[in-house]
TrEMBL record:
UniProt-listed InterPro entries: DUF1192
Top-rank taxon: Bacteria
Highest classification ranks of the organism: Bacteria, Pseudomonadati, Pseudomonadota, Alphaproteobacteria, Hyphomicrobiales
Keywords of the record: Coiled coil
Protein name per UniProt: Uncharacterized small protein, DUF1192 family
Ranges in coiled-coil conformation: 27-57
Keyword Coiled coil included in the entry's annotation: yes
Amino acid sequence: MAGFLDDDRPAPKRAHEIGQDLSQLAVAELSERITLLEAEIERLKEAREKKSASRSAADAFFKKA
């Protein structure tokens, strides 16, 4: 019975897939994806900076004199 309920739900919006065919997307959809990907790039850069800072702090702490 649960299978029938699943069919009534709207399909989740698919995320952008690297390398996917873009020919079927409208200009507005492409712009939306660019905005989303730019935000994701910023999020990744921030995570990298935090990890780098943690690593630098650990290296400084354990550095032999």
